[in-house]
Specification:
14 strands, single chain
Length: 513
């Protein structure tokens, strides 16, 4: 590696993140000193390093010699004194300010006066850590994403005390390692966690309220939201204890109750169910993969009729229509608004036992079902993406038993992926993604980061196919404001009101980028 002013880098703490960071540095041909608190923890750290590089060997991405060379570059020790000749030390111990301050006091004592000291904190204040050292000008944040060897984003955080040269050198190092640095100031959660964790916590609340199952929420966000992982799979990957700590730290700064950790998350952590690392979290990682929850048995021959004047989702374009009286599933294309208009009279001609499914963009189905003789046969069909394969089957309080399952089986036979949810604003995908997009617009409006940094953070740190600012333009600011207004009306949650920047661009008829 060339052009980098660090040659020997220490990593304190070899848990999942620390070991991943040590691997990235060693892959970049730097000499690494990995340090743990005691021999047992050091052995666990060695295990992480061997497993992660071994996995690359198994996948044919690395030779055995390559693996040996990487591991040989990492000197493992329990003696802080071995960090004495490092140019840079990255701390990756658990997210407790008292612990981090203790580690930094020790680093301050053993490291050269010109060494840069970095914290991989997820959300604690880098400034709080810096002021407890004798060298606050040389303290930076360097925030990697899990799994560190894979995710390309590294947030590099300078405080008001950090000398600019230290930030530049660390950003150059990150770029030299093949990652993308996003340089930002010191705010709880930085860019990516600040946007990600509100969404993860909301998903936990959605599960706890019985709105939908964790399988269905995960499927919805993967298939309908295009994310690499659903929120529960991701929380299990991150570790539920880490999720709790990050949320507490963000809440301490934001005082936004959407960041107050969901009681369900806290309960799982108290029970020791921490996710992948403990074998069980939201999912049981030892259990065989669960069967899909809805439809897909391949035996249902859907006899479908599509009526109504609303927009026809692309996936329904080729469905051959039959007479209403013959259909098992009557899809009524709703105009999207008004949401309390009753079903068109033609739907009353459906045969007994047929499912009446209304497409509707707001997730409010009860207004169309209430008062009908056949209210028990009515479900909503909500397509978060007009041309996507995900469809949310919305049940109301009067939907009859088995009706939503029947609807799911029928739409799955049409090649769609169904998930179930209750009749609440935004269904699953829109209810989860628009508050996150609104937070990104608010962050942009507050001047914390520019559109490129915000989009890069979510794409490269969390594997999102598009960044939130670009996503708002793609989905349309009118739609964003419409869904946010509906969510706000339902929850009366101030943070769900459309960000002023969104309203302003929408009124101006301009896109954000
Ligand atoms: N360690 C090392 N490498 C791993 C890995 C791990 N735990 N998991 C996957 N990989 C590698 C694989 O070896 C493979 O590498 P290759 O392409 O060179 O062969 C590559 O990642 C893709 O793996 P898979 O094909 O097995 O799996 P997927 O295609 O499903 O991708 C994923 C896995 C990259 C993890 C993807 O699902 C993803 O991007 N998920 C989102 C992860 C995310 O959001 N991370 C950020 C969390 S927030 C955070 O860390 C901040 C902190 O402060 C809390």
């Amino acid at each position: 590696m060339s052009g980098v002013s660090f040659n020997k880098v220490g990593v304190v703490g070899l848990g999942t993140m620390g070991a991943g960071i040590a691997e990235v540095l060693a892959r970049g041909e730097l000499a690494v000193v990995g340090i743990e608190i005691n021999p047992e923890a050091l052995e666990r750290g060695r295990g992480h390093l061997e497993r992660s590089t071994g996995r690359a060997v198994k996948r044919g991405k690395l030779t055995e010699e390559g693996q040996r060379a990487i591991l040989d570059r990492i000197a493992l020790t329990t003696d802080f004194g071995d960090l004495g000749d490092c140019d840079l030390v990255i701390e990756a111990v658990p997210e407790r300010l008292d612990l981090k301050r203790k580690v930094f006091a020790e680093l301050d004592r053993v490291c050269r006066a010109d060494a840069v000291l970095a914290t991989n904190t997820s959300s604690l204040s880098v400034t709080d850590i810096a002021v407890a050292t004798g060298r606050p000008t040389k303290i930076v944040g360097v925030h990697f994403f899990n799994p560190a060897p894979v995710m390309r984003l590294v947030e590099v955080i300078g405080t008001v005390l950090t000398e600019p040269d230290a930030v530049t050198r660390v950003a150059d190092l990150v770029a030299g390692l093949g990652k993308t640095p996003v340089v930002i100031g010191d705010r709880a959660g930085f860019v990516a966690n600040r946007l990600l964790f509100g969404y993860l916590n909301q998903a936990a609340g959605m599960l706890a309220s019985g709105h939908a199952t964790h399988d269905d929420i995960d499927t919805a966000m993967k298939v309908g939201g295009g994310l690499p992982m659903g929120p529960f799979t991701l929380m299990d990957l991150i570790g539920l204890d880490t999720c709790l700590e990050v949320l507490e730290a963000i809440y301490a700064e934001s005082r936004d109750r959407r960041h107050a950790p969901s009681p369900l998350l806290r309960e799982l952590v108290t029970a020791g169910l921490l996710g992948r690392k403990s074998g069980r979290g939201f999912y049981d990682h030892g259990a065989p993969a669960a069967e899909p929850t809805a439809g897909g048995n391949g035996t249902v021959q859907p006899v479908v009729c599509v009526v109504g004047d609303g927009p026809r989702p692309a996936r329904l374009a080729d469905v051959p229509d039959v007479a209403i009286g013959d259909a098992d599933l009557v899809i009524v294309l709703g105009p999207g608004a008004p949401h309390d208009a009753p079903l068109p009279p033609a739907a009353a001609e459906a045969k007994p036992g047929a499912v009446l499914a209304v497409t509707d963009s707001s997730g409010r189905v009860i207004g169309q079902a209430a008062g009908l003789d056949r209210a028990a046969d009515v479900v909503g069909l909500h397509f978060p993406e007009a041309d996507g394969e995900l469809v949310e089957i919305v049940s109301t309080v009067v939907t009859g038993e088995g009706v939503a399952d029947k609807a799911a089986a029928l739409v799955s036979a049409l090649g769609l992926t169904p998930v179930h949810c209750r009749d609440r604003a935004g269904g699953i995908v829109d209810a989860l993604r628009f508050p996150y997009l609104n937070d990104a617009a608010a962050m942009l409006g507050a001047g914390y980061a520019d559109a490129d940094s915000i989009d890069a953070a979510m794409k490269l740190g969390c594997g999102y196919p598009t960044g939130p600012i670009a996503d708002l333009d793609r989905l349309g600011l009118d739609r964003a404001v419409e869904v946010l207004d509906a969510l706000y009306d339902e929850a009366r949650e101030p943070a769900l009101a459309p960000a002023p920047l969104l309203e302003e661009y929408r009124t101006a008829g301009r896109t954000l980028r």
